[in-house]
Amino acid sequence: MKCPCFPRYSWLDFLFAVVGVCTFLFDVGSDVWLAREFYQRGELFWFSALLGFMLVSSVTVQMFSWFWIQYDSQLENYDLETSSRRVFLFGGPKRVKLTCFLHICQLGFLLRHISAIWLGFCVWWRREKGSEYAVYLTHDLSMLRLIETFCESAPQLSLMIYIMLHTNQARTIQCVSAIASTTSIAWMVVDYHRSLRSFLPDKSKQGWLSSAVYFLWNLLLIASRVVTVALFASVLPYYVAVHFFCIWPVFVLWACLQGTNFMDSRTGEWLYRATVGLIWYFSWFNVAEGKTKGRSIIYHLFIITDSGILLFTWWWLRDLEKTQSYTFYLLIFIPLSYIMGLLIKALYYCCFHPKLWQPVDTGKVPDDAPDTIVALNVSVEADTSDQEFVNRRMAKHVNNFYSMTTHG
User: Quick one: residue 168, left, alpha or beta (phi over 0 = left, psi -120 to 50 = alpha)?
Assistant: First the structure.
């Protein structure tokens, strides 16, 4: 069966790739600047915590990138030679050692960005062949950015807010770093959702209003969770790690029980489940097909209960004098933010979310089937020898995300 005509690589895809790498470099630069400030001021605890977030995030992203390169190198049409294909920095058996070395040096993610920009420039500006490879790269980058965001940007944002609360002051570099982290999270949300929607036909293409609504409810839910964790850390700084390591294994086990199959190896799948557990600490992320409405409700009820306990602990143990000016506003803002986020999320799924109204059949797709069925069925089951180079990893997430009963 032929693949449907997915949107080709466009100037907007190229713009997203350029902005993505600029955001990435700005985020890394602000992290290094802030770490240097902590070290020079003798604040070694903050320095170590920030360095730990950066290192864990970088190693995790490099591992995913390397796993995917190994998987992709086994695809039948992975080494097709086109003029644009030659700039793809990670292909070909001769480049395996160099690619491995770059990932060990924590440069694999950056090189993916550079490769995507150059290949996108060749496809869009020079009108060369290789659009399917450019789209393939952007899909992988969107997932890697999501992983990088929740492994580094979200914990780092909690750290920045905690430091400002602990010291009762906000230096310029702290504000810059907080803005960089927030920008990274916001851009990831839009970019990842847009990447998923590109698997659907043109008539289901992501609109600006839909993007804004999707962005808003994610921002409200994530922001309230991040601030709550930071508040808890401001009164019990060492217990926040205990809190995370008590909840994280439960999330990993839950991901395992849902039978995730995102990676192509057992080791890679456990890495994915561990990362999903980290993402769930801050935000809901659907990882399995089927009736996920119940799982989403269970998750949000758990997070509401957990965040309520953390917020009450902060209120009970807070410094009355230091927190007098903003206690009332936070107690109103945090619950209201989460409730508004849930309401806007419900609005999104009622009015903007394309639905798969019939179960996907691995056999023949009826002629009158909705476009979403055709797109999803072919995305996952497409023959890899076809000229269309479909990213099967992201196609699996599309099947999870765009179904009749899926909620997020």
Answer: left
Within a domain: 272: yes
Q: Distance (Å, rounded) from C-alpha 190 to C-alpha 406?
A: 19
pLDDT(73) > 70: yes
Count CA atoms within 13 Å of residue 277 on its CB side.
20
Greater model confidence, 257 or 374: 257
Average pLDDT over residues 271-299: 88
CA–CA dist 330, 318 (Å, integer): 12
Q: Which structure tokens are listed for 114?
A: 């550079």
Per residue in 31-52, pLDDT tens?
888 788 888 888 888 888 889 8
Share of the chain above pLDDT 90, in %: 25
* Residue 150 three-state SS: helix
Q: 74 lies in a domain?
A: yes
- Phi then psi for residue 316, to 5 deg, are -75, -35
In one-letter notation, the amino acid at residue 353 is H
- 165, 342 Cβ separation under 8 angstroms: no
Number of domains in the chain: 1
Residue 330's closest CA among 223, 238, 241, 216? 223
Answer yes or no: is 177 within a domain: yes
Instruction: Using the predicted structure, report yes or no on whether residue 83 has a pLDDT greater than 50.
Output: no
Q: What is the pLDDT of residues 137-191, one digit of tens each?
A: 778 888 888 898 889 888 888 888 888 888 877 777 667 767 667 666 766 777 7
260 closest CA partner among 274, 241, 244, 249: 274
For residue 309, what are the domain limits? 11-401
b/e code 246-260 from CB counts within 10 Å (16+ = b): ebeeebbebbeebeb
Q: Give the type of residue at 278.
A: L
pTM of the model: 0.82
CB of 247 within 8 A of CB of 281? yes
| Pair 46, 163: CB distance under 8 Å | yes
Longest CA pairwise span in the chain (Å): 69
Around Cβ 204, how many Cβ atoms within 10 Å? 17
